[in-house]
C-alpha cells in the first residue's frame, strides 16, 4: 500500500536558523542560495509496499545530513526504513524499522539536522534505543538520534539547537548484534499522533558537512583522552585462533557467541586471521564455541581495547572432537527404565519413556558412563576414538 504524505515545513523558530561552517549543497556554498527557496522532493520508499513520501523542504532552513563527510544512504536491506524488526511497531513502519541506519564509525560526531528544541534526552544506556536525543522542529516535525555513544554534556531538555550543531557521537548503545551506527528517525505530527516517515528523501537533498568538527569541542575534553575512552567504551576485540586439539588444524565454520559483563551478547565471524568478535566492551567475556563433531567449549576470554585499524594477538583455543552416545537403560531383568539419569563428566541426560537416552559433545578418549535410577546405579567404561561420531550402547542398572 503506497501512501503519499505531504510534509509542509514551516519557517525556522526565531533564533534557531543555522549558520554552519563548511557546508555545501550541490557544490554551492550555503549562503549563495536564497533562504526562501523551496524544493519538493518526491521519493518512493525502497520497499514498494511502504510509503511514498513527498517533502516540501525549505533549503534556507539548512537541513543537514547528520554525519560529516560524503553523503551515504543505506544500502543493506536491514538498514532501510520498514525493514524487519521484532516486536510491535507502528503500522507505517512496514515490518518494523521506523528509521534508517547510517554510518559505521564509532565516535563520529552527530549533528542536529535542523534548528529546533530538544524534547528528550536519555543519557543512560537502556532499552533498544540506548542513549538517544530527540529534537522537535517547527511545523510538527521531530528527529530522533538513537544508539549514541555520547551526548553533549551541555545539552538539556528545552534547549534550542541550531542546524549543524554537534549533539553527540555514533555508538551502539542498545544494540545487541550489529556494529556502531546512527539510527535516524523522522516523524510528523498529524493530529494527536506522530507518524514515522522514511528519512531518505530528505537526506538525499540535505546539506553535507565537508569536514568533521572537533570531538573535543563537543565534549570539552582533550582529544587524546576522548580517543582512549571511546576505544575503552566500545572498541574491545577478541580474536580466536581456533584449532583441532588432535591435528592442530584450523577449524572453520564454528558458531561463536559471547556474553559480556553488562549482559550484552555478541556473535563471532570467521576471518582470515581467525574468529573475530568486534565492538565489545573491554573486559572479561564468556565465549561459547560449538561445531558439529566437537565438544562445546565455554571459556572466559578478555576483550582487548584497540585503536581503530589495530588487531590484538589471537588467542589459541583448541576444540576436542566429540561424539554422540545413544542407547537404552535397562534393569537386570531387561526392562527399560524411564527417568534414569545418564551422565559422563558434566554432560547428562534423562532416559525417555522407552528408556532411551542421548548424550552429545562427549570428549574423545577414555570415558565412564554412570546410569542411576531410584538409588541404583550402573557403570560402563569405554574409549572413544577420533572419528567416532555416534556410539550406541546399553546400560544396565543393578
Quick description:
The protein is mainly beta and 398 residues long. The protein has helices at residues 200-203, 215-219, 223-234, and strands at 4-8, 23-25, 28-29, 38-44, 52-58, 100-102, 109-111, 116-122, 131-137, 141-151, 160-161, 166-170, 182-190, 193-197, 208-209, 236-244, 255-259, 265-267, 269-271, 274-280, 283-290, 297-305, 315-319, 322-331, 341-344, 347-350, 356-363, 365-373, 376-384, 390-397.
CATH superfamily of the largest domain: Glucose Permease (Domain IIA)
CATH architectural category of the largest domain:
Distorted Sandwich
- Range of strand content: 35-45%
The CATH topology of the largest domain: Glucose Permease (Domain IIA)
Mean pLDDT: 73
Query: Which residue ranges are poorly predicted, with pLDDT under 50 across at least 5 consecutive positions?
Result: 1-60, 211-234
Number of domains: 3
Describe the structure.
The structure is a single chain. The chain has 398 residues and is mainly beta. The protein has three domains: 4-231, Glucose Permease (Domain IIA) (Distorted Sandwich), CATH 2.70.70; 235-319, Immunoglobulin-like (Sandwich), CATH 2.60.40.1120; 323-397, Immunoglobulin-like, CATH 2.60.40. The protein contains three helices and 30 strands. It has helices at 200-203, 215-219, 223-234, and strands at 4-8, 23-25, 28-29, 38-44, 52-58, 100-102, 109-111, 116-122, 131-137, 141-151, 160-161, 166-170, 182-190, 193-197, 208-209, 236-244, 255-259, 265-267, 269-271, 274-280, 283-290, 297-305, 315-319, 322-331, 341-344, 347-350, 356-363, 365-373, 376-384, 390-397. It starts with a strand and ends with a strand. The model is unreliable at 1-60 and 211-234 (pLDDT under 50).
Amino acid at each position: 500500500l503506497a501512501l503519499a504524505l505531504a510534509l509542509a515545513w514551516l519557517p525556522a523558530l526565531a533564533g534557531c536558523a543555522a549558520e554552519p561552517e563548511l557546508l555545501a549543497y550541490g557544490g554551492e556554498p550555503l549562503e549563495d542560495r536564497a533562504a526562501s527557496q523551496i524544493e519538493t522532493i518526491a521519493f518512493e520508499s525502497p520497499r514498494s509496499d511502504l510509503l511514498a513520501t513527498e517533502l516540501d523542504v525549505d533549503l534556507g532552513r539548512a537541513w543537514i545530513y547528520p554525519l560529516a563527510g560524503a553523503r551515504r544512504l543505506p544500502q543493506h536491506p536491514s538498514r532501510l526504513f520498514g525493514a524487519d524488526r521484532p516486536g510491535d511497531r507502528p503500522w507505517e513502519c512496514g515490518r518494523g524499522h521506523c528509521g534508517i541506519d547510517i554510518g559505521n564509525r564509532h565516535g563520529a560526531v552527530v549533528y542536529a539536522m535542523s534548528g529546533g528544541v530538544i524534547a528528550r534526552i536519555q543519557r543512560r544506556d537502556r532499552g533498544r534505543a540506548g542513549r538517544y536525543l530527540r529534537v522537535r522542529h517547527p511545523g510538527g516535525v521531530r528527529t530522533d538520534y538513537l544508539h549514541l555513544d555520547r551526548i553533549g554534556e551541555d545539552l538539556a531538555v528545552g534547549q534550542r539547537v541550531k542546524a549543524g550543531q554537534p549533539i553527540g557521537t555514533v555508538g551502539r548503545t542498545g544494540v545487541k548484534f550489529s556494529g556502531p551506527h546512527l539510527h535516524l528517525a523522522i516523524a510528523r505530527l498529524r493530529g494527536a499522533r506522530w507518524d514515522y516517515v522514511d528519512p531518505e528523501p530528505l537526506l538525499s537533498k540535505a546539506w553535507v558537512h565537508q569536514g568533521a568538527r572537533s570531538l573535543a569541542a563537543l565534549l570539552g575534553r582533550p582529544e587524546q583522552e576522548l580517543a582512549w575512552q571511546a576505544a575503552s567504551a566500545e572498541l574491545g576485540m577478541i580474536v580466536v585462533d581456533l584449532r583441532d586439539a588432535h591435528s592442530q588444524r584450523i577449524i572453520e565454520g564454528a558458531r561463536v557467541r559471547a556474553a559480556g559483563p553488562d549482559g550484552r551478547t555478541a556473535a563471532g565471524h570467521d576471518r582470515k586471521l581467525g574468529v573475530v568478535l568486534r565492538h565489545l566492551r573491554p573486559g572479561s567475556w564468556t565465549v561459547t564455541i560449538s561445531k558439529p563433531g566437537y565438544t562445546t567449549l565455554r571459556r572466559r576470554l578478555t576483550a582487548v581495547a584497540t585503536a581503530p585499524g589495530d588487531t590484538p594477538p589471537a588467542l589459541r583455543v583448541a576444540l576436542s572432537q566429540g561424539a554422540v552416545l545413544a542407547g537404552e537403560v535397562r534393569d537386570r531383568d531387561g526392562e527399560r527404565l524411564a527417568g534414569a539419569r545418564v551422565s559422563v563428566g558434566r554432560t547428562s541426560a534423562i532416559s525417555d519413556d522407552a528408556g532411551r537416552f542421548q548424550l552429545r559433545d562427549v570428549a574423545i578418549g577414555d570415558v565412564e558412563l554412570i546410569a542411576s535410577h531410584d538409588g541404583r546405579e550402573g557403570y560402563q567404561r569405554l574409549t572413544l576414538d577420533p572419528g567416532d561420531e555416534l556410539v550406541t550402547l546399553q546400560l544396565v542398572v543393578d
